[in-house]
Amino acid sequence: MSLEISTMLHLSTAHVTPDLAQALDRHVEILRPLGTRCDPAQWQSHLVAERWAEYGWFIWVGSGGRDRMPKPLQDCLNFAEALSVKWIQFDRDCEPVDELPTYDWP
């Protein structure tokens, strides 16, 4: 038997803007039946993501439509991809990394 093991990068939620955080929350709240598709012109239609309690989100680095995503999310996905990471866990308790911009939240 062969096991597949994926790596996860933990990033601070400070690396996403407040507007992007709201968009991610809205995205993961929508339950879509299997086999349905959203508008492919919208970046959210390609994103594989899940809410992690009140702490942040899990996002698959291989999600498509990156060129349509908000720049802060593109930056985080590109950063993770360069590290050969498969998932990002955005966590409000993580320290920000110097390589990515940070954004102030109200």
Task: Report on this structure.
This protein is α+β, with helices and mostly antiparallel strands. Helices cover 23% and strands 18% of the residues. It has two helices and four strands. The protein has helices spanning 18-29, 71-82; strands at 8-12, 49-52, 56-60, 87-91. The chain has a four-stranded mixed β-sheet. Strand 2 and strand 3 form a beta hairpin.
Compose a concise summary of this entry.
The protein is an alpha+beta fold.
Helix content: 10-25%
Q: Which overall shape is indicated by the principal axes computed on the Cα atoms? A: globular
Please mark out the parts with pLDDT under 50 across 5 or more consecutive residues, or reply none: none
User: Count the helices. How many?
Assistant: 2
Instruction: Please give the radius of gyration in angstroms.
Output: 14 Å
Strand order, largest beta sheet: 1-4-3-2
| Range of strand content | 15-25%
Query: How many E strands?
Result: 4
Largest β-sheet summary: 4 strands, mixed
What is the N-to-C order of secondary-structure elements (H for helix, E for strand)? EHEEHE
Give average pLDDT, whole number: 83
> Structural class, judged by helices and strands?
alpha+beta
